[in-house]
């Protein structure tokens, strides 16, 4: 299958203040971007993630992979801002249903 590449599929211009987010829930991936300098509040990010993945009625835990590949939680404004500011250039976010048997140890609270 031959797919043509369109500029509209990428950022329209290179903007160093944009952070690309790649989120994973189960086998599904979603992409969106945030402003590195004004990322907002954790609660707004949480709502964006569950809306983007169409899991609004599901309680989830959110984590991210840091620059060393370690999984760290995103569960408050402080570690959300740390995750966004340390993304270079991509913020890899992992979402898991709360209370599942394989739930990551760091994902205990929201």
Care to describe what's here?
This protein has 110 residues and is of the alpha+beta class. It has a single domain (17-97), classed as Ubiquitin-like (UB roll). Helix content is 19%, strand content 30%. It has two helices and five strands, in the order E-E-H-E-E-H-E. It has helices at residues 42-52, 77-86; strands at residues 18-25, 28-35, 60-65, 71-73, 90-97. Strands 2-1-5-3-4 form a five-stranded mixed beta sheet, with helices on one face. A hairpin with a 5-residue loop joins strand 3 (60-65) and strand 4. The protein is globular.
Layout of secondary structure:
Layout: E1 18-25, E2 28-35, H1 42-52, E3 60-65, E4 71-73, H2 77-86, E5 90-97
Parallel strand pairs: 1-5
Antiparallel strand pairs: 1-2, 3-4, 3-5
GO cellular component, one term: nucleus
Keywords: Cell junction, Cell membrane, Cytoplasm, Membrane
InterPro entries: PAR6_homolog (IPR051741), PB1-like (IPR053793), PB1_dom (IPR000270), PB1_Par6 (IPR034868)
């Amino acid at each position: 299958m031959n797919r043509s590449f369109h500029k509209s599929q990428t950022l329209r211009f290179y903007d160093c203040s944009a952070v690309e987010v790649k989120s994973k829930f189960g086998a599904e991936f979603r992409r969106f971007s945030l402003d590195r300098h004004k990322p907002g509040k954790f609660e707004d990010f949480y709502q964006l993630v569950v809306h983007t993945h169409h899991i609004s009625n599901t309680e989830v835990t959110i984590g991210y992979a840091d620059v060393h590949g370690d999984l760290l939680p995103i569960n408050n404004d402080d570690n959300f801002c740390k995750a966004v500011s340390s993304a270079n250039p991509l913020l890899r976010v992992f979402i898991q249903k709360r209370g599942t048997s394989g739930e990551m140890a760091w994902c205990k609270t929201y």
